[in-house]
Amino acid sequence: MKWTNDRSDNVDDRRGSGGGGMLVGGGLGTIIIAAIVFFLGGDPSAILQNSATSSPQQSEQRQLSKEELNIREFVKMLTAENEQTWNKVFQENGIQFTPAKVVLFESGTQSGCGAARSEMGPFYCPADQTIYMDMSFFNELQQKFGAQVGQFTVAYVLGHEYGHHIQNLLGTLDKVHQLSQRGSETQANQISVANELQADFYAGLWAKQTDSREKFLEPGDIQEAMSAAAAVGDDNIQKRGQGYVNQESFTHGSSAQREEWFMKGYNTGDIREGDTFSALLR
Predict the structure, then answer these.
(1) Which of 151, 236, 165, 226 has the alpha carbon at shortest distance from 195?
(2) pTM
(3) CA dihedral 237, 238, 240, 242 (to 10 degrees)
(4) Which of 30, 91, 111, 239 could cysteine-pair with 26, CB 3.0–4.6 Å?
(5) Which residues pair with 114 in a beta bridge?
(6) Are 262 and 229 in contact (CB under 8 A)?
């Protein structure tokens, strides 16, 4: 993908700062459960706040490498493009837009949803309207889950997390939480799948709208997004982790569903086409 000249000030790079916090008291089981939630974009606040406390654990400060500084600039660019695209979409629909913040961290840091760890992958915290990303996640995505990782993989993941911010601004996350509390576990899982697939749709919409404005896509970029979407499908993760697939336990959608809804967002570029809840909860 081509880099644009836009940069956002809403990126907080905490790598090399010597700070951060580690989970204490949650136990390995809690960390694994939270990791699954974090890894695929969910809100882990209930898990972390109820089962773990945070204890400051300082590490030595260090200078960031040229590669790390380059990553910072890349994330600032992607964040700026998300801000511009979504501000335009919201204006067209008469809605007030508020940008999300993005935090880059390593090992551990504090969030409005509790302490975060690198093993948990990128996530959006609605409590402080912030996306948290440890960039080592993308090595895991390639090595453990078979994704084709490139620059647009990062763009897709950030676009998905920004999609959760859009849901937060539109009140979708509150409705999802309320609906999930009323039904059975199976119904709650179905609602979660619809929620995650809508974030994939928003990522595709962002790619389409941003490319229309900036012409930043290059051959192979969308294929990278498809590879990442397939890698984090529930069926792929279950096959690799436990050797079989249990569709009733899906919380984020199959590989095929995640690809389908990203492409629907990309092909339509129309936020009105992203009602995954009506499509899936019939």
Answers:
(1) 165
(2) 0.86
(3) 150
(4) 30
(5) 111
(6) yes
